[in-house]
Each structure stands twice: as structure tokens, then as C-alpha cells.
Design a protein that fits this description.
about 30% helix, 15 strands, alpha+beta, six-stranded mixed beta sheet
Length: about 325
């Protein structure tokens, strides 16, 4: 399968969004999306049903706040969802929505400056219509650009994240299916390791990571956790603290997992349910379970993974713990 028709639908949808006026958004969604569209986004948007509600609740307010918006893609791929038997096809894009932040958004004060919203979007295409979308975005990173720091502790470092080192993530053309299968098998193996870990011993963690990752791996994490580089620093600056910071961990699985060429990724709704045991992101222990909605995107190099871009709905997770990060930050 080449997935070219599905890619064409999504690219034309993006072009229409890029060029239309705000008042014409309903027509754009009517042209490209199913009337039963399911849209999943980070807090405070959550799940929205129907294209008219997606326009009203997300796209219209966003485009009224940000002018001259460009979708600057770093990764574009398509593939069959490997997690079900329906052979449903999803198209994935990742990068930044860049624009001029000219009006308040989510009560975040405008800057009148260039601003970039990290995003990753999974679109399910059926019969030349988009029927489901998972659009995850790093709102805390946008808040930092607006001069608001929502989190006091990061084990990594937050940056405007670049695309792949190899600059080959935009797969508009047909790819070698064998390459995609290799990528899929490595991502599957890595996920199995994540599901079964029990030890927080550093050496055991390093041994586990070395099975799936190249030594010079880069983990591009969300604001609040940050990015980290090399297996050892990743173990010390994210994976180790993450494993130590939670108890009662439950892996809920993914809704979609796809790969094409040397790239692949997945999302869940939620991926994980766990209880903070203290320390993670500088937060105290709680007795409350919380959900993590996550998108992970990967670049493979050789027989192992080299880069990982990660989107976690931290605003939703901490709100489940009784901490409204968004409200607290914009009011300070």
C-alpha cells in the first residue's frame, strides 16, 4: 500500500486551513471531514465530537488569536494501524504551528511576537474523508514563550525543538514497506520493555535502553520535563526519575500505532494510569491516580531508535491531581 490518496486528503485539508478565512472554517471541515468526526486534543479541549464543534472550540479561537499561521512540518507519514484488524489508515504530521500571537488565547496574554506551538496530529482517513483526529500540542511551551513558567522543576531542558537530524522526515512519496516493518518491530520491542519494567536499578535501566536505542539518542520531551541527550543522560534526567516518581502504574495501550520508512509513532487515550509517589516534576506524592495522554514519534537509524519526540498532556494529568497548572499560571 502506498497511502498516497490518504496523504493527499490530509495535505489538501492542511492547505485549505492555511489559506481560508476564519469565517470559512466550517466549509473547510465540511469538505474534508466526516460529520461524525471525533477530535481528541489536550486539556482544556479534550474530546470534541462533530466538525462544527471542533471549529467553534479550537480552530476559530486559535486563528483569532494567532495571525499569519504557518504549519511547519518536520515529519509526515502514513501507515496502517497495526493494533487492530480493520486495516485503518492514519496520516501523521508533526512540527510547529507558527504565527503572530496577537490576541489572548486560553487567558494567556498575547505577545505580538512570533510564537510556535509544538504539535503532532494523527488523522484517520476513510473513503477520502477524515473521520478521527488526535491533535496533541505543548501548551506549556507556548506559555513559556509568553513569559509564563508553568513548572518550577525540569530534569531536562526545554527548547524550540528541531526536526530530525537527517532532515528526511517528510515522506510525501511512496516509501519502501520493508523499512517501515523494521521500524515497527523495533518500536514494538521497545514498547514491550516499557510495559514489563519493574526495577529502578540504574544499570538494569541502561541495559534495557541499549536494546532499543542508539547511544547518541535524543529524547525531545515536553515542557515541564524537557529534552535530554545520550542513553546515560536520558536514564538520569528522565527515565530513571519517571520510574521512581510513580506507583500503581497501569499501561492502557494505544489507539493507533503506525510506521513508514524509518519513522513511526503512536498515541493513546490515555496511554498510562499511575499515581505520583513524590518527586516527579518537583511535585509531592498524592493518593490520586492520573491519566497520561501521550504521543510518541520516533526516528530509526540502523537497527535501533535515535530520536523520540514526546507529547504528554501534563495539564490534564496534574488537574486530575487537583492542580490546575493553566489557571494558576495565567493568573500569576
Amino acid at each position: 500500500m502506498s497511502f498516497q490518496s490518504e496523504k493527499k486528503v490530509v495535505l489538501e485539508f492542511y492547505e485549505a486551513l492555511q489559506t481560508c478565512k476564519v469565517y470559512d472554517l466550517p466549509n473547510v471541515f465540511s469538505r474534508f471531514c466526516s460529520k461524525d468526526l471525533i477530535w481528541r486534543g489536550f486539556h482544556p479541549f479534550n474530546e470534541i465530537n462533530g466538525p462544527e464543534n471542533v471549529v467553534k472550540n479550537f480552530w476559530q479561537p486559535f486563528l483569532e488569536s494567532f495571525s499569519n499561521v504557518q504549519r511547519r512540518m518536520d515529519i509526515f507519514l502514513s501507515g496502517v494501524n497495526s493494533l487492530n484488524e480493520n486495516k485503518d489508515i492514519w496520516v501523521v504530521s508533526m512540527g510547529h504551528l507558527m504565527g503572530l500571537f496577537d490576541q489572548p488565547w486560553l487567558k494567556i496574554r498575547e505577545t505580538n511576537k512570533l510564537t510556535m506551538l509544538r504539535y503532532c496530529e494523527f488523522s484517520k482517513v476513510e473513503n477520502e474523508r477524515i473521520t478521527e483526529i488526535a491533535m496533541f500540542f505543548d501548551i506549556p511551551h507556548l506559555m513559556v514563550q509568553a513569559g509564563k513558567n508553568p513548572f518550577s522543576s525540569e530534569t531536562g531542558i526545554s527548547l524550540v525543538q528541531p526536526g530530525p537530524l537527517t532532515h528526511d522526515g517528510l515522506m510525501f512519496d511512496k516509501q519502501d514497506p520493508d523499512e517501515g516493518e523494521i521500524t515497527k518491530s523495533i518500536i514494538d520491542s521497545m514498547c514491550n520493555d516499557l510495559k514489563t519494567w519493574t526495577s529502578t536499578d540504574r544499570q538494569s535501566l541502561l541495559d534495557e535502553l541499549k536494546r532499543s536505542w542508539n547511544e547518541d539518542m535524543i529524547w525531545w520531551g515536553p515542557t515541564g520535563i524537557g529534552a535530554t541527550y545520550t542513553i546515560e543522560r536520558y536514564a538520569d534526567q528522565h527515565s530513571g526519575p519517571f520510574r521512581e516518581g510513580f506507583k500503581d502504574r497501569k499501561f492502557n495501550g494505544h489507539l493507533c500505532r503506525v510506521s513508514e520508512g524509518k519513522y513511526g509513532g503512536f498515541f493513546g487515550w490515555p496511554n498510562l494510569t499511575l499515581t505520583p509517589s513524590g518527586g516527579f516534576m518537583g511535585m509531592p506524592a498524592t493518593e490520586k491516580k492520573g491519566d497520561m495522554r501521550v504521543i510518541d514519534m520516533y526516528r530509526r537509524e540502523g537497527k535501533k531508535l535515535s530520536e523520540n519526540w514526546v507529547f504528554i498532556d501534563l495539564l490534564h494529568f496534574w488537574k486530575m491531581q487537583g492542580i490546575d497548572i493553566l489557571e494558576r499560571t495565567v493568573n500569576n
